[in-house]
Amino acid sequence: MTQLHDNIVGIDASILMHPRVWEASGHVENFHDPMVDCKQCRSRFRADHIDLNAACPNCGTRDSFTEPREFNLMFKTVMGPTDESGTAVYLRPETAQGIYVNYKNVLQSGRVKLPFGIAQVGKAFRNEIVTKNFIFRTCEFEQMEMQYFIHPSQDDEVFETWKEARMAYYEKIGIRMDKLRFKEHGPDELAHYAKAAFDIEYEFPFGWQELEGIHNRTDFDLKRHAEFSGKDLTYLDDQTRERFVPYIIETSAGLTRTLLMVLSDAYEEEEVADGDVRTVLRFHPDLAPITVAVFPLVKKDGLAELAREVEKELREDFATFYDQSGAIGRRYRRQDEIGTPFCVTVDYDSKEDQTVTLRYRDSMEQVRLPISELSSHIRKAVKEYRRN
Prior knowledge:
This is Glycyl-tRNA synthetase. The chain is an alpha+beta fold and 388 residues long.
């Protein structure tokens, strides 16, 4: 989102910002969930997730719920020497607002012109009523967000462009496209800032779940921050001399959810020779924690020393791992299980002709290569990788 784009810059905004930021964003006013408690067992629930006329899901008591009350989802703390004299501040519930309050700084110092984007990866915090659904409802999580600033007349076109670009990202990292879909937000589902919104969802083993959202936020955010800060956040086009408040197209993805998707999508168990079952993680090589594992066929006769030299040479270009323990077949399987796409074996012939065996994870095919050509061959294989 940054390195491969000429007009998107990265920042790392503060987790703790001025409390007025969250008034301007609408979080103080709108970022609530309805909460009820069971008076019998003290269990707490979101009021919109249960039938208030039914029995308590935890203890079975009927007519035991308190009246629904609003529960603000932001974590509140105090900045200052004491609770009494300090200022109430919030841990950010999203990273986007840090981008908006830094918009003018980036505009003035980053030598950017519309259209341009600001992206960041960072922690966000939500004071959930009930944490549940594994990583999908937690108090602390990692976000990847990009806000793209454009002329208001371009919003529909740019919105569609980023929808396509974000879906293409998942194909690029090797995700099966039949497991992905768009889900449009209906009129009653749109957030208070949104003109249009789509989610990208992935079909996990436990069902479809949201990975990220693409939103047309119009000029809501910059107008609100201008109003609350008193700063001019308009943009002056130096060609047309038109002054306007930019519209924003947002892409907002959950990094933790993306990791779970990559693991779920890559995991396979396949039957190989003699009814044996191989467990393999079919990561795209760009995502694999280890790109190349290097093994000596045996530890003796100088093979281990030569294998170490090969591994150190490959380490300059790739994430590598050295293993000399156990049978060679068992070492291959260990690397299959953690998703290593390539394994290199140094044997007795390697000492004579300076060649090694390169094994491909997905196909288990083995080829013989000169050590001198190993790096370039692997680099080409990574670039041309296509999942079977």
